[in-house]
Every structure is written in C-alpha cells, then in structure tokens.
Amino acid sequence: MNEPTDFLVIGAGLAGLAFARQVQAAGATVQVLDKGRGVGGRAATRRFGAARVDHGAQFFTARSPEFQAIVDAGLAEGWVKEWYRSIPEWRDGTIHPRPDGHPRYACPEGISALPKHLAEGLTVITEAEVQGISWEDIGYVAQAKDGRQFAGTTLILNVPPVQLLTLASDLVTPEDATLLATATLEPCWALLALLETDLAVDWPALELTNHPVFSWIARDHTKRGPGAPPALVAHTGPAWTAAHLEESQATVEAALIAELETLLGPLALSQSQAHRWRYAKPLTALDQPYFWDGARQIGACGDWCEGGRVEGAYLSGHRLALAIE
Hints:
Elements: E1 5-10, H1 14-25, E2 30-33, E3 45-48, E4 51-54, H2 65-77, E5 81-84, E6 89-91, E7 94-96, E8 104-106, H3 113-119, E9 123-125, E10 130-136, E11 139-144, E12 149-157, H4 161-168, H5 174-181, E13 184-195, E14 205-209, E15 214-219, E16 231-236, H6 238-244, H7 249-264, E17 269-284, E18 291-293, E19 298-300, H8 310-324
Parallel strand pairs: 1-2, 1-12, 2-9, 6-14, 12-19
Antiparallel strand pairs: 3-4, 5-8, 6-7, 10-11, 11-12, 13-16, 13-17, 14-15, 15-16, 18-19
C-alpha cells in the first residue's frame, strides 16, 4: 500500500483534477485514481485514423473568473482556441442561424488537452479500478481490482452518483445517500465518422431540436488546425438512446450512419465507430456545487452537482477544495 495521503480522490475527471490541483497548491498531499488509461472522463479525444476526434464533451465556455484563468492560460500557450460564437439550430428540417454569443472554446489537439493540463504535477494513478472502499485506522482505504490498495485521510469521489453509491453507500449517512441518489445522468451514443471529403456546408456544428435521432452534429475537424482530416461527431438524443441503449456497437453504428445520411445526404465514409456513454449528461442535478460531510471527511464533486457543462465540472471540484482548505 502507498503511504496514506491527505486526500484520496477517486476519479480523474475534470472535477477530481480541479480539486486535487487546488489542495496540492495549498500544501496538501493528494493522489488521484482512475480506472481508465488516461485522465478527463468525458472530456475525451480519440485518435481515429489520421484524425483526433472529441467523442464526449464537445466544447467549453468560461463564465467564471476561476475557469477563465485556465482558459486564458490555454489561449496564451496555444492549447486552447476560440472555436465559434454561434452554433446554428436544426429545427423542423431547416437550419436556423443564431446571433453571436459568448465564445465556445476548443482544443486544437483535442479536448483531452484540458484535463491533461490540469493533471500536470499531480500524482495520478491510471488503470486503477476501485472495487471497494473501507474506513480503517489509517483513514479511507480503496481496494483496486488488481489487488493494490490506496489510502487517504479524506475521501473525494468524482464518479457518477450511481457508482458513488455502489462504492460508498455505507460510508455516508442514510440521509446523504438519499440526497446523492437524486442526482442522475442520462446516457448517449456517439457516432464518429471519418470522411474522404468534407461536407459542402459552412456550419461548424448543429444543435438539433426535436430530431428523432440526433441532438448534436459537429464537423469536428473545424476545431483542429489547417489540413485536419474531415470528421463528424453525432450524439443521439435521450429517446433514441433509451430505445437502443443495450444494442451492440455494430448495430448502433450501422443505424446511425443510415440516419445521418438521411439527414445530410450520402457521406464519403472512410471509417466509422459508435461509442456508448452510459453516464453522459446530468438529467437531475444535485442543485448544490458539491457534496461535503466534514464529520466523516468525505466529499463528492462533478458536473452532476449543478447541472452540467465542462466549466461546471471544474468549478465543482475547485470550490469543494476551497471549502475544506
């Protein structure tokens, strides 16, 4: 077992990384565990043929001073760019332009650049799938699937609420377990499509209203530099996702390609792939920026606390750290 740290964070999503970054800056010791091979959760970029494709979170905004400072640093260093200020809406078969609004930011190398930046200088242990957590004399002890153990005085959970309660239902009070169970996330299928030729359109992405299948379609390569291979990312809406959630990846991929071509016309596809996000977007939020039980030294953070958005995830972890410093 590693030496116990002041904080043990389960989940290297944006909220968990923001929390760890803040408490470490304040002088605490912290280790972050994640079951994946990398950091970021749904702020994910996949290498797909010659392309890099954001198949989870699509962009981010900055409306708070705390997150604007992160974005400004990224702009200055070149790993963030302003993408667009207006995303048109598809409604009833027609594309409706929208006036310019606040900047939508993207990362030229993919949105995973954001969590990678937040993780710099932190102790992050990947491929550590936690199967159980207990309270021992030395503090909280997390048991990984491969037998490794990790300990910390204070436990922070940056995982979807249903997984949080699976891991820690006996570590929180019954009242808090009931509260945490009110936060839910809905699933989503994502289709990644690499094209031989780009679409003959001028929009970077579409938000779709009342479409039977899709809620979002992006020309993902418009976030990259000149010469990036043309690529589409399409996300399904809640109703279609629920009806097809447990179907095979291949079945869903074929169905979504057919639906996408019905909407956009024939596509010159070179590669395609479907990805299922079981916990994609907050459906019902906790309606508070984070969860914290000071008596038990256990907390939780994530975009599900106050209703989503990349910035919301960051602020959840950042503000939890400030609250307990």
